[in-house]
Write a structure and sequence with these properties.
Blueprint lengths: L2 H15 L7 E6 L7 H17 L4 E6 L9 H7 L4 E4 L9 H8 L7 H14 L1 H9 L2 E2 L10 E4 L13 E4 L2 H9 L3 E4 L5 H6 L5 E4 L3 H4 L8 E4 L9 E6 H6 L2 H36 L3 E2 L4 H26 L4 H21 L4 H11 L12
Parallel strand pairs: 1-2, 1-3, 6-7, 6-8, 9-11
Antiparallel strand pairs: 3-10, 4-10, 5-8, 5-9
Helix pairs in contact: 2-11, 4-12, 5-13, 11-14, 12-13
Pfam families: DctP
Protein name: TRAP-type C4-dicarboxylate transport system substrate-binding protein
Main location: periplasm
Amino acid sequence: MTLARWTTAATAALMLALPATADARDLRIASGAPPAHPSTSHLYEKLAEYLPEESDGEMGAIPLGPEVVGLGGMKDALQTGLVDVGNLLPLYFPADLPNFALAGELSLSGRDPYAMAAALTEYTVNCAECQQELSDAGMVFLGSGSSDPYMLLTKEPVETAEDLQGLRLRSGGAPYSRWAENFGAVPVSISVLETFEAMSQGTIDGSMASIGDLLAFRLVELVEYATPVPLGTYFSTSNFTTAATTWQSMSEDERAALMRAANRANADFSQRWGYDFAAIAREAAEEAGIEFLDADEAFTEAARQFALDDRETAAEVSAERFGMDDAPSRVDEFVSLFEKWEGISEEVDHDRDAMIDRMWEEIWSKVDVSSYGL
C-alpha cells in the first residue's frame, strides 16, 4: 500500500474512532510526517483525541495526511488557511524565525528530552521577540517536543574519532554539520525523508539521528552499526503551530481548551519520541543484527567538550546571520532554563503525567488567553 493510501486509510480510521460532536468546531490539523513517526501517532492523533475531552465536545479535529501537506509546505499551509494547526519545524525557515534558529543552534546541548522540550516552550512563551516574529509570520506557538539523544547510524563501524574521517553523514542542521566537520566527517544536508534513498545509493555512509529513524524511515534495512555519542537532541520544534487567523476567531474558552490539549499531547510526543520509541527501535535494531558500539573515552569526552564550546559558536552565528547582538545573553538564558528543567525532569523521574502538571503550572497557567498570540 502506498504512503498516501495508508495515510488516508489511517485518517479515516481515526475519524471513525473519534466521538461524534454535534455542532463542534473542527480544526484541520496536520503532522506533515509519515504514519510511523511519533509526530503523527503520538502527537497529532493525541491532539485529535484530547480536543473533544478538553472542550466538553465543543471542538474536534480533521487530520490531514502528508499527501495533503508535508513538513516543507507547512508554513505556507498555515499562512494560506489550508491548515488550522500544523507541525512546524522552524529550522526549515530560519530567516523567518531567527529565535527558533538560535535554539536550534544549541541542539548539541540536548540531553534530557522532557527538559529540552519544556525549556524551549518556556523560553518561547515568555520571549517578546519570539512572540513578535511568530506574530509577523501569522502563527501562534503552543509548545515543543524533543527526540531522544542522537547517535551515529552508519554502514561502517565508528568507535573512535579517527573512524569518522571522510565518512559522509546526513546532517539535520548547522550544529550537526559543525560537529561532523570538527571530527573529519563530511556533513550532507538533506531532508530526513531522503535518508533511506541516499544511504541505499551510497551517497551517504550514515546519519546523525534519533535511533527511532531506523523504524520511522526504514533505515533498519540499511544501517549496520549504531554508536551512542554526545550529539544532543532535536528539540527546535513548534508542535502545534496555530494559524493566527484561526486563533483570533476562537473564543477564550476554545483557546484554553486547545492549549490544554496541546500540553498533554506535547508530553505524549516527547515520551514517545524521546523514550519509548527509542527503546522499541533499539530492540528492532538488535533483532535486525545491527551492532551497537561503545565510543572510546577520548572520543566521548571530545564530543562532550565540543557541545559545550559550540554554545559560543551558536551565539556568534545568530549575531552574524540575524543581527542578534544579545545572542550571548539569550544563550545563557536558554541554558539556565534547560538546566532548571533537567532538575525538574529528574525530580519527577521523567514521568509523563508529572511533566504535564509541571509544564502547566510553570508555563501555561500563567498565560493570558485573552491576549496571548494576538
